[in-house]
Fold:
Amino acid sequence: MNNIIAVILLSIGILFNLFGCIGLIRLPDVYNRLQSATKCVTLGTCSILLSLLFFFGFKEIGIKSILAIIMLFFAATVAAHALVRGAYIFGIKLGDRSVVDHYKNANEKNKEEEK
Amino acid sequence: MKNIISFVFLVGLWLLLTYNISVANIIVGAVMALITVLFFGKYFVSSPWKVLHPRRIFWFVVYLFIFLWECIRANFDVAYRVLHPAMPIKPGIVKVKTGLKTSIAKTILANSITMTPGTITVDLIDDDLYVHWIYVHSIDPETYSRQVSGRFEKYIKKIFE
Structure:
């Protein structure tokens, strides 16, 4: 039973990592591409790690995979956040299809304060 | 008091991560935890024991399931947008106001928003979260606030404040 659940989770994980990679190629600008990168992590990598837990049970590997999920929650989000903010401050424009940009004003205000 | 809790927590984490209870390993873990607490102790959560209250743990479990459900739904949504030949995306950065006060609660909210596919927190200035959204459903502040952060905010408030 556990083997079946593990295989299902593993397939879901690989499938969503594949979707994430397709998104990484197809989407138009940095910001949207990062969206698809974080999508990989949530359902893709986390379900691969969960499948390890189901396959090996609460042994060494299972517990380590739970810890890895918790660390991913903090590390992947902080990395994505830093990349997006860095790209914006570096001056990369939002793509052509963007609708709103509320961050522009706040960012300019910040820059003036720093000066 | 706060430093002792974070020290014990770090040693426990080290022992789980290495999964090896020998004296040498415990000594290495203790020394590393001591160094970490000395340098970064001031960045830890200010009142960690507060989170261990049973009511907060109950809401944490509820929040975990709601987060999981939102994640799965949003994953399928973004997968659909990526695979659709015409790519129905409408990206933009929106300003979301949050009512949370403590910094740990704001951090968890920002992390949850980033972990949900389709939204990334760009910056957090005072009480405003700037969120990059792959499909801006509406530009009315009340509507999009509810869609981006409303579903998490009330639970985080119960857990961390």
User: Anything to note?
Assistant: The CA atoms of residues 10 and 43 of chain A lie 10 Å apart. The mean pLDDT of chain A is 82.
